[in-house]
Amino acid sequence: MTDMPPGAAIRLRAIAKSFPARAGRPAGAGAPRRHDVLTDVTLEVRRGEIIGLVGANGAGKTTLLEILATTQLPTAGEGFVGGCSLVSQAQQVRRLVGYAPAGTDGFYARLTGRANLEFFAALNDLSPAAARRRTGEVLRLIGAPELEETVVQRCSTGMRQKLGLARALLADPPILLLDEPARSLDPASQDAFHALLRRSLAADMGKTVLMVTHDLGTARALCDRVALLRGGTIAGVWDAADLPVGIRFDAEPAADEASR
Amino acid sequence: MPLVWKLAAFLKRDLATDVSYRLSFALEAMHVGITVAAFFFFAQLLGTTRPQGYASFPFLLVGMTVNAYMTTCLVCFSQAIKGSQLAGTLKAVLTTPTSPTTFLVCSSVYPYLRASLDAGVYLIIGMAFGVPLSGMNVPAAVLVLLLSLLAFSSIGILSATFTLIFKRGDPLLWLFGSGSWLLGGVLYPVDYLPTALRHVSALLPITHAVNGMRAAVLDGAPPGGIAGDLGRLAIFAAIGVPLSLAVFGLGVRRARRDGTLDHW
Asked: In this model, does residue A258 exceed pLDDT 70?
């Protein structure tokens, strides 16, 4: 555990991440051996806030979420979730976060939504009885009880996205990492999701949410703050209400634009 | 208790998936039946030859049974990794508090049970072809089975690590599987091998698994009667399992570092 500032849920200091330039193959003469995705990410997420993470494609948003979900190790820097180190206390971190990736795969296609969720509940240390109960609860919470008996390979992309959110909620973690959580949802489902996030998860349950989105309107409407990831670093953090209207993901911010 | 719950969850998942492919059970039983029948007729060709003092067909039957069991133990770990990568579930699993090692070990339990069932089917069909199994020493056979499982698994776990890091073309599995088939005494006694190869044969766990199983199943040898084979299998397991699990842990760490956990 580390001395996190009171009220902080996540703290990242100078996080960097690079990948082998061509995985599995030797780099050619003169070619860079590593591809830098994140160079210096410093960010603090307050407990109970919804913070949006925006940035261009390839800016490293998903990489950052995966570092927080402990499926990737940072190349440099240090990060803490709930006071636990992302590197040396990954097991404890996994008890604190629920991660809903952007992709809609990641389920056992021939099993029902219930069977999938009960399986993942067991991996989150829930007893069979608790897994059954919790599966019903989360499906009702996200407003998709029909997924219980639907075989995953018959689920639409949007239904799978809801299932991903349900899975992230299974262990009732205090911190949620959501990667474009409403990308495949129809307008009505998006509205329902926004209400769920704002009212139930954040206001009622006090969860901390770090959410990747490309939609600045959604970011303004849903988030307390918005962080822009650009050039491998956090280029600016704004209160959602102050998010500049014409902000571009791929350009340098104006001198007075960012108020980290 | 969570480990028991997890184990039960893996078994439930794998059984439900397997049951959803209903035809596969019937096809697998037919495959075993046809294999046993083919070896029965092949054994007729060998006439009254008695390899290691056993009648030809029982000798071949036990060799094939152990080899099929070994093959499952070798491939089930890498299949767990590859299957999870293809389905996109590996990352989802590894964001839970369940350790990669627990995931790997729990994923292998259902294939083991299926392989044990298949081994039973091999022997039962063998009985139908006239192999006398009434004198089998069950405790000795079970001991050979369990120690073989551990010894073979260490190679399987190393193979899974290879799959995790290099994704394809696992030379370890190929080398070990082919080597065991050629040198392990599955189809012929190792006495027929040149001296140098006989020394290599002694280093393969399948050699001792096949020897011990033939003695337990066909001669009714008690555990004490096959202590040499059991001891060697135990040594393979005692060294191989911790070593392979440590290597797997390093492999997961490397995949997390390179961001390739779900690459395939």
From this structure: no
Give the one of A17, A105, A125 whose C-beta lies nearest to B2's C-beta. Answer: A125
Of B96, B99, B250, B264, which to mutate for an interface test with A (greatest number of A Cβ within 10 Å)? B96
CA distance, residue A120 to nearest chain B CA (Å): 7
pLDDT digits (tens, 9 = 90+) for B147-159: 999 999 999 999 9
- For the segment B217-228, the average pLDDT, to the nearest whole number, is 96
Q: State the pLDDT at residue A257.
A: 45
pLDDT for A223 beyond 90: yes
Q: Average pLDDT, stretch B173-189? A: 92
With CB atoms and an 8 Å threshold, state whether B258 touches A23: yes
Average pLDDT, chain A: 89
Alpha carbon of B157: minimum distance to chain A alpha carbons (Å): 20
- The fraction of chain A above a pLDDT of 70, given in percent, is 90
At A95, the amino acid letter reads: R
* Average pLDDT of the segment spanning B139-167: 93
**Among all residues of chain B, which has the CA nearest to that of A20?**
B258
Q: Which residues in chain B touch residue A133, judged by CB atoms under 8 angstroms apart?
A: none
Which of these, A12, A8, A20, A18, lies nearest to A38 by C-alpha position?
A: A18
Residue of A nearest to B7 (CA): A122
Return the residue of A nearest to B261 by Cα: A71
Contact B91 A108 (CB under 8 A): no
The residues with which A239 forms a beta bridge, in sequence order, are A225
Contact B17 A111 (CB under 8 A): yes
Reading the block at residue A53, the tokens are 């993470």
Nearest to B43 by CA among B187, B205, B226: B187
Residue B218: phi and psi, rounded to 5, are: -95, -30
Max distance between CA atoms of chain B, in angstroms, equals 60
Q: Does the beta-carbon distance from A23 to B98 stay under 8 Å?
A: no
Q: Dig out the tokens for B224 from the structure.
A: 């004490």
In whole angstroms, give the CA distance from residue A107 to residue A100.
Answer: 12
State pLDDT tens for residues A71-124: 999 999 999 999 999 999 999 999 999 999 987 789 999 999 999 999 999 999
pLDDT per residue as tens digits for the range A12-42: 999 999 988 765 555 555 666 788 999 999 9
Beta strands A34-46 and A50-54: pairing type?
A: unpaired
Looking at the predicted structure, is the pLDDT value of residue A1 above 70? no
Q: Min CA distance, B90 vs chain A (Å)?
A: 7
